[in-house]
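Q: A small favour: would you put together sequence and structure tokens for a protein?
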Amino acid sequence: MVKPEQASPTIAEPHKPDPQKQVAVIDSVVAVVNDDVITRKELDDRLRVVVHQLQKQGTPLPAPEVLERQILERMISDMLQAQFAKENGVRVDDTQLDQAIMRIAQQNNFPSLAEFRAKLEADGVDFKKFREEIRSEIISTRLREREVESKLVISDTEVDSYLANKKNMGGAEEEFHLAHILVVVPEQASAEKIQAARDKAEQALNQLKGGADFAQVAAGYSDAKDALKGGDLGWRPSDRLPPLFTGELQKLQPGQTTAVLRSPNGFHILKLVERRSGSAPVLITQTHARHILIKTSEIVSENEAKSRLMEIKRRIEGGADFAEQARRFSQDGSAQQGGDLDWLSPGQTVTGFEEAMDKLQPGMIGAVQTQFGWHLIQVLERKNTDVSEQQQRQQARLAIGTFKSDEQYQDWLRQLRDRAFVEYRLEDKQ
């Protein structure tokens, strides 16, 4: 999620056009994306924010024309996702948006939305633009869940192969702090386009070999979503990285980079920032819980769903049977089991649900909103359990799903772009 300090456009313009030409520059079009356009002013506004982010991170700035093209490509991708969402009825209404922004405010220690807004505006942030950035981010997340993650298929054979490879590797598990550059190859690309992508990756690698800062090169060359954060992937367990990566990382010392690596979705360069041992826990805490879900939809608003759930909560607190209420009202597949979710291990539910569940003591009831709607959760009991073969297989599925999701999301974005009409008019800025 975007934090307010990351969206503060408080620095000077990245370039200063002639005042006499200002109106023409503001009104010019730098790209046509299907039936929409991106204007020079929109590009300059985004450039200000990104340059501010990079400077705040202490990242050396790429060449202006390289950064400008990189930002434009990101804006085109965002616009294509917004168009797809609109065509397919994926939207975030103002109530949902306000709730998301309120959560951001609370995460940044602001007790009220008014105080949070005042702080943003004091920092020079346009609050309306900030709202729309958060709306776009939520839509992007929902599209990824709908178009990619909901369609992931992980076979038992893949799990068996993964666990066998992990056993054969032996030794202690490792975690890697990585930075990453990705140059995407379009689907069904011609030999010329593949070579152009390879050349771009080799250019980036040559700059790194010449002593250039990795974050600077990532900001200028990488097509990955984290490019403007210097390509930093943070800490990744070895079992959540594709074998292509782990094999090469074993050869590196901290501070070193790989050669250009080829995967189905493009060319990669990895930098090993740090490594550490990450032995798996001997025990995990499992929670036996049940829940009631009221889904939100075009017909049922956030407020209506919450109101229905709170009425059910009052009935249960007044003596009604939780299981019976779940069978009558829950819109989840667990309804016929009285909402019983059986024993849950860490990572088996969505983040918001798990966080709310973990705060409850056995016997307690709490409500939480997730992307599925409003949930009433009751924790029945907890236990510490040895990591069994079943849990190992579940962790394997999560690990496989992580890198398959990343690859397939890049594929989906690439297909979205391949189907689109995009015309560049950057040269019109003069």
In short: The CA atoms of residues 177 and 235 lie 4 Å apart. Residues 389-418 form the longest helix (30 residues). Residues 1-26 have pLDDT under 50 and may be disordered. The chain has three domains: 4-149+425-429, 174-279, 283-386.
